[in-house]
Structures are given as structure tokens and as C-alpha cells.
Amino acid sequence: MTATSPSPVAEKLDIRPLSAVIGAEVDGVDLSQPLEPETVAQIRQALLRWRVVFFRDQPITGEQQIAFGRAFGELDPGHPVGGEGEEYPELLTLDASRRGRRATELRGVNSSDPAYARAENHDPAYGWHTDLTFVANPAWGTILRAEVVPDHAGDTQWTNLVAAYEGLSAPIQAAVDRLHAVHQWHSGRFGIVAEENPVAEPVLSAVHPVVRVHPETGEKAVFVNPHFTRYIVGLSKRESDAILRILYEQLSRYEYTVRFRWRPGSIAFWDNRATAHLAAVDILHAGEVERRLQRVTLSGDLTVGPDGFRSQPLVGGLFGRK
Amino acid sequence: MTTTTREIALDVRPLTAVIGAEIHGVDLSRPLDELTVSEIRQALLQWRVVFFCDQDITPEQQIAFGRNFGTVTPAHPLGDAIEGYEKVKPVDADRQRHRTIQPGQDPSTVGDRNRRWHTDITPVVNPAAASILKAVVVPSYGGDTLWTNLVAAYEGLSQPIRDLIDGLQAVHSFGRAGRLPVTDDNPRRRTYATTHPVVRVHPETGEKGLFVNPQFTRYISGIPTREGDVILELLYAQLARPEYTVRFRWEPGSIAFWDNRATAHLAAVDVDHAAYERFLHRITLTGDVPVGPDGYRSEALIGDPFGIED
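Above: the input entities. Below: the C-alpha cells describing the complete assembly.
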């Protein structure tokens, strides 16, 4: 902790919504400084209301990012597969250089090449995910900070899973309220690949309620995502695919989303219990770009469904717990 | 009439890797010199949609701006002009409402809500070449518009699928879903219908782009329904992929100018979630008849060409 003391009076934060249902920019706070409880409370309120909040022009260090995160709770120790950060265990570096190389390779791929089928995925919901749902206690929040980003590529989008749930018809809501789904680690293009031996990477898996009751607000939210969810328990494959299709199309509808353009020093802080996000959609079209962000995640609890079902680990234990 | 002269190039600021750019350093209330018009046209062809901010212009000035790039059409083939300006179409929030389930509404009356993506006026044989939309009254948040790059969406398809659709045509008409626009009683549906190529060759750049949209395209002609429906679903999902899109947040005085031959757009996606005032003015530029990769030229089934002065 630095010697700087908190400013004596909490200013009212300036909250500027970005769409009707999700996303707000927060001005009037310096995240390099320790925050007083009133400021932390205001940010938490904005996060619960807008699901993801953004801070601009915050050129803070990794250590300061960790301190900011700890103002809201205990941090995860790195990533269940990617491991601990190099400099600080809690700090995970998301570097697009791997993706950039792949993009370079891709531009040379003829679409008649079999590699093409793996390179492109035309599923309308492809890429949307909630962080870490392959463990039974996924992070409740994620704080992502841009260090180096391209000028006009690599936007991130978030969707409001509460609004998506509320937009379903009552019969569908009633049906999915009672369902549970298996989630599994998957090192696709949007994931983190275990560097040494991708083939031998651990298969982490958990079963979650399809609808999650938000532990702070009591709201119900869709809690499946096309990246980590595999199937719904107790349904035939055909039935499971149909229900998941409805939910994936619902959560990826633009009316529930916000799109954010990063600048160096931009920070996004999202409620991982009420959102899914879609990373860097156009990066493959951007040519040679450098894109590096730093992430910390806030340690989460078991998820609970409207029927009282609590999530269970299937393969691997709880993340960050001995 | 005097025109301003200018030494430096326009300030064009791209917004994503594949579509959308802001243009700064031009005052659209004044006549534009040839160089400026040429640079805006180049930016439009490259970025598919360009945006201007803080342009507090009148409908006359909007029309004058449009005339730099072509012939300004009447407001819409089905009428619907703002009072006093037969070339200006009102776009307001009320028209976009009730496409999500409203309190007390029977959910089975809500149609496919993924059907809002559209290219303007494709039921006519010569859909508008471009649209110019100006924000008059917009909320401080909510009501964004998205555009998608139909050339990039086409190029993202595999070669066998591209080869397949290069030779197909589809019927477009006004009105809600239905395969038989000709016999339907709905007058909006009967007024215009056209067969277009599924892939359009851009008349200026020669690029191939998707030219179907879920709002106006009814069916692919010459193949069985089931096959056509599956292909259209594939193409609709493709054109809606986020990597081909840009999202624009309006402010009063914002202007969007898009190449309607290479884009589709999705209006006011979250408008159902907020009660607010939203009002915009649109003009469109007369388009030519689309041509497919196989040389097929669009054929009107019902209705005359739009915006051609006799």
C-alpha cells in the first residue's frame, strides 16, 4: 500500500450509461489511489445496475489494478488452466500476439483448404462466453485493463443475461428455470491454451443451473454460454440442442448488448454473474496488430438456480480453494 | 455560389477493422468542393458507412449534400415524407416499437426478432444506392444503429457456398413474411416486388457482396422451399456476425451516410427497453439495377423503378 491517504470527501461519481440496458462509463475517480468505502459502494451499485462499467484514461500499474480489485473482494490466483501470472499471481496477461499469428496464417488460407473449416465459424452466437464457467465457482467479477490496443479493431461486447432472460416468454422461462447444464474447459480461439502441451491440458468440468439467481440482486439470469456449455442434463441431444439454440440466440441479440472501443488505459469491470462477453471480433481482419490487456478476477461462489440447485464440480475441484 | 477551397485531406478515422469511419474537418452546411466530395466518396466505398458529427443542417442542406453524390429520390416508394419535404423520410422510435414481448401481449404474436437487419428499399428493382440519415432528436443513450459489411460477409463464406449462391436469385417485397407477395391482400406487400441476384456485383468497385436481407427477402426462386430457407438462414446468420459490424451511437446533429449496395443495417436495437424521444431524417439516392456475378439483372415483378425522373 502506498503512503497516499484517501481523499477526505467522497465525490459523487459521474455515471454515463451507454445503452438502454447495459454498460456505463464511470468518471470522476482515480483508480491509482486507494478508494474510500463510499466510492467503492457507488462503483458496486453502478456495476449491479449496468452490469459492466468502464473507466477511461487510468494508466495504472498491475499492482494498482490488484489493489483496485481487492477493494471489491478476494482475487482468484491466476487462471485454472493458464496458471499464475508471471509478475503477480493474480494478474493474467491476455496477449493477442498468438491470435495475430493465427490471423497472419489465416490470410493465406484458401477457403477450399480443410483448415478453413476450422478457421471460420458462422454460428451466430460463436464466441460469447461467461468467464470460467467450467469450474463450479466461476469468478463473480472480472477487471480487464488495456495496455496496448490497436486504434480501430478489437472492440469487446457484453450482453445483459438478466435482460436476455426477461425477454423470453413465460413458458420457456419456466422450463429453463429447472434445468442444469454441463460446462467444460475448451481451448478454442477465445480461450487460453496451456502452452507446453495443448493436447494434455486438463479437462475441467462443472454442472451449473441453466438459470442463475443473482446472489446480490435476486434477479434471474441465463447462465449458459456457447463457449463452455456442452449439454443440458436429462434431455436428449436433440432437445438439449434446441433449448441451447434458443438461449444462445437470445443472449447474442444486439438489443441486450453494449460495444466498447478500447484505448490504452481503459478498464472494463463486469459482473460475471449477469453478463457474457465477446472478445475482439474483428481482430482477424485487422492485419498485424499488437493487443495486450491485463486481467484480474474476483473469486466466486457456487451458482444457485431458481429451484435451489447448487453447482457441482465434475472434474477438478473448486477454483482457488484447497 | 462560392465553394470553399481546402489544402489538407479529410480527417477519416476508422471505427473497426472492416466497416465504419468518422469523417472530421468538413462543414456539411456549406457547398462542398470537388476534392471533398471525391474524398468522401472514396471513404464511403472503403468503409461502407461514414459518420459526421455536430452537423446542425436543415433538410434543404441535407438534400444539397446528397445531390453531390447522385439524384435524391422521393422519401419512400410508399410515401411517408415529412411535411413540406417530399424527399425526406421521417424515422422515429414509435415505428420500431412492439417487436419484443410487451406486458400483456401474447408471445406467439411476436415474430422472428432477428429479422430487423435490412438493406433499404430492396423490394424495388433499383434499390437506393445510398442513404443519408440525420439525427434530429435522440436520447442520451439507447437507440444505436448497427451496420454490417456485406462484402466482408460474402468473403467470409467458403468457396463452395459462394459458388452456389453466385448463381441464385431471390424475391424481395414489402410486408411481413410470406412467399406469395403477388396474391396477398396486404396492399403494402402488393405494391412492390422484385427478383434480385442473391450476390450483387458492386457497380463501382466490382466487389461481390451478399444481397439478401431478412426484412425484405421472401424466398430464393427456382429451388425448393426447404433448401431456400436453409440457405437464407445461413446467409442471415453470416451477415449478422459481429465481426462484420459497426455500432454507432447517435447525438443530435450526427449524420450517417451508407453505401446501400454493400451494407445492411439494424435500427435502434434496444429501443423497446426505454421510453424516449427519437427522431431522424432520411434521404436516399437513386440506385441502379443490381447485377449478379452471372450477369443476371434484377427484374421487377410489381412496381416501377424508384426515383427515376421522367
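Note for the figure: The longest helix of chain B spans residues 225-239.
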